[in-house]
Amino acid sequence: MQIIEAKNLQIGYNKDIIHSHLDFTVSDHDFICVVGSNGSGKTTLILTILGLIPKISGELKVKLEKTEIGYMPQTSKLAEDFPATVYEIVESGTLTNHRGKADIEEVIRQFNLTKYQNTKFSQLSGGQKQRTLLARAVVATSRLLILDEPYNNLDSTSREKLYLDLRKLNEKGIAIIMITHDLDHSSLVGDKTLALLGDDYFFGPTSQYIKKVHRENHHV
Amino acid sequence: MFEYAFMWKALIAGLAIAISAALLGTSLVLRRNSMIGDGLSHVSFGAMAVAVALGIAPLWFAIPVSVVASIFLLSLNERHRVNGDSAIAMLSAVALAIGVVAVSLSGTNIDINGYMFGSILAISNENLILSLLLLTIVVIFFAKFRKQIFVLTIDETFARAIGIRTKAFNVFFAILSSVVIVLGMKLLGVLLVSSLIVFPNISAKYLAKSFKGLTIWSIVIAALSFFIGLIFSYLLNLPTGASVVLASALIFVLAKFISL
User: Which of A99, A151, A207, B4 supports an S-S bond with A103, CB 3.0-4.6 Å?
Assistant: First the structure.
């Protein structure tokens, strides 16, 4: 079932257009990576999907409630020095969907954070911080998970681990939209790719995107 | 010293205001909106001076004016973070100037020293009742919405993404903060009242591991600083604001030392 449908979508901040004429759909079980260079509009796109900034024109149907979507912002956006425990942060994901203590503890366990649940967030390692924010997003969602550069500040082992966690969630039926930092192929882990390429864009299977990039590199 | 009625009034009203300010401060300070308190104190001084000059009841004029100013300052901060600072600086200066002009032109006999640095004798019955009412509202607001306030404070984008009405919360914060400033101004003074919002939280941050801990520590530190400040203000005949700020600063140094 389709959960997001965009037709001829134009996105931007205030009235500055960042990207025009985007067509794409997101269905249950999709795992989509959004790529593009800095300033190409990746974050703008997901903030538009989340309804946090208005679209400029075109059509965007999001057939989900806010309580069905989990969102993980970039770690750097968080007020880092704030005294908050891992438990408090994960718990804040349940504020509008009213999940209980058992669900919170289950998610904390799932991300191997039980040992740290009373630890201050600012004392965690990069990977642990990332897992805490992911846990908060996961406990907030039942249908769609939107992640903004979750691979930032992670070494390759932690990336691998995060990827497996995401795959597991995806197999349970949660659709995933994930921004990755660059056009590095190793980060294209989704089944589909949405690449924002200046005035152009690509939306389709990841394998096809990789072929397209190879072909273009060959021509150059 | 507590055989005097004015001391009891100052103590009760002061504690109510200090605790309210500390609770509101948890969110304002950690979102780097500390300067809003400073801007508001100048606006409420300007409003009070104009009210006195015009012969209007000062509190009932200053509260609405400050509420409007607070919503304005907050919206500035939301739109352009960088310009917010300069806007507050300009607004502060203009409001202070208006206040001073109003005092000069009207020829009323206002104790400027008391207004600037606070006076132990300043608490009226009206002020006392309003302070207790304010504390009640702030405590209920916090008890009911502490989790929403928490997520709003650490990560407003996430709060909006999961459907929390952050704008409504921000406006409510702005309104309550301006009332705290107006009520605290006579006791603590224009220049020092905003320290009630800032100090307890900065000190509590060194001692707390969780948001719950931060809230509790802020309340304890706010009450303690005010109590110590008030006692010294009485004993040494000091402006209350100055003596409370010095007590807060001392506790801040102590908290930092303990955290090392």
Answer: A99
